[in-house]
Amino acid sequence: GGFSVSNATLNRFFSLHYLLPFILAALVVAHLIALHTHGSNNPNGTASSADRYSMHPYFTFKDLVTIFLFFLVLSILVFFYPNLLGHSDNYIPANPMQTPASIVPEWYVNRCHA
Description:
By secondary structure, the protein is mostly helical. It has two domains: 1-40; 53-92 and 104-109, no CATH class. It is built from two helices and no strands. It has helices spanning 7-38, 55-80. The longest helix has 32 residues, at 7-38.
């Protein structure tokens, strides 16, 4: 009646998590190739290909600004406020003889045996 995870499940889970980044990278490359070949919608609203903005340097620069802004915010969090997103329970020394109060057994463990 219990839930168990077998070796086959773990192998499939590991395989999925190993292959997923490569699949996503391949999709990104395919997307960039499609953008380079067919182009994207233009912000001018014209149907002519002559009036379109080229992908490089305009859209490349726009994306790089966003990436650098993300890394700036990430760097500020990491170097100046490393504990901002952490939990205060991480500073309690480990005690193997005491279960943390936040860990509560499931309902079927707490039944009375008379």
